[in-house]
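Tutorial handout. Part one gives the primary structure; part two gives the three-dimensional structure as tokens.
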Amino acid sequence: MFFVDTIEVPGLGNRGYLAGGARTAVAVDPPRDIDRVIGAAARRGVRISYVVETHLHNDYVTGGLELARTAGARYLVPAGARVAFPHEPVRDGDTVDVDAGLRLRALATPGHTPHHTSYVLAEDGAAVAVFTGGSLLIGTVGRPDLVEPRLTESLARAQHASAHRLAAELPEEAAVLPTHGFGSFCSAAGSGGGGEGTTIGREKAANEALLRDVDTFVADLLAGLDDAPAYYVHMSPVNAAGPAPVDLTPPAPATADEIAARLAAGEWVVDLRGRVAFAAGHVAGSVNFEADGQLATYLAWLIPWGRPVTLLAESPGQLADAQRELVRVGIDHPAAAATGGPADWVPDGDAPASFPRGTFAELAGRAADVVVLDVRRDAERRAAGHVEGSVHIPVHTLHRRLGDVPAGEVWVHCAGGMRAAIAASLLDAAGRDVVAVDDSFAAAADAGLPVRAG
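Part two.
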């Protein structure tokens, strides 16, 4: 009897897997904090004999190399991936025996990357699951534009062919187990399913890649692509070189004076508390990335790569969780950290900074007199409409475009409040008068604001 355990990485919208039998197992696309995978194997009482990668990842730092070293496992990487460390190259059709009666077969599925490989898990010769990485996702496919712009269209066509190959060669009851597609920006479109599973049969009935001809599919896919996180360009080189082992040693503690000095030096001081607490009081010049939001994605997207970062957390546990999340995207060794609250972080004699929060109903009475700043992505604005007269600057570009925000009091909104809080903190740090709209965009029309399509 086989098992498949899912290793959730919710902050990045990804999953890794541990699959095996009674004695041994294979880890697929493991996250960088490998202790989670080792813990899963210990709970099952199995030894990890193989670690496999579906592709050279563009959105996170893999734990594959270190897990293989730690577990004494064979490390299988697609042959087309150019990596600088010892591994076993995998080609289409290669097989390995994971446990008694349990076999893994490589199946070339280019598209997300040129070398992308899926792995079919078979029990006693019958395919029971397929680890599809960034190929066939739930209702969609992995985006094809992360490798090289000149390859995007050909990779999109390869994605279509790979999806059809999976559908043609595997039984309808085979479970489809992707790495991306649970909020990851590696997904070409919004992926359905959430925590639910899917199968080849369900994807045949619902997946856009399997329901459209190749030309229509490619045209729609390319038209729907939005900006990818800026930090993605750093992930593949890190993974190709061989990531260093994770070091989760707590950062050096920072005093209030040191926090002020780091801000004065142009470093980033990141407050991990919730947006309500941050708006009520914070260190002037600090920025707010909620620990419970997509911390790693948005901080890595916005911060200049390699810039020192100091973390402010309300508790040691919150700090430790944030540090763990950040190493998954290569933000290692924060320069310093502090726990507590603004009273602990502001030098004696200084007062915490603050700014107000509002709703769309409150904005409706002020919209004619203030700047309305929409920080959603382009695709969101097109799909859900926008407040007439609003200025549109996506949050991931705002730190470079602060000068494009018109003069006056700024009411900033997104789809739900989290990104508006990031944007409001950036504007507040720049000395602007800002109000963070902490409300669902669906409430804008109900409040009487003129919402226009497109």
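Part three, for discussion. The chain is about 30% helix and 20% strand. The mean pLDDT is 96.
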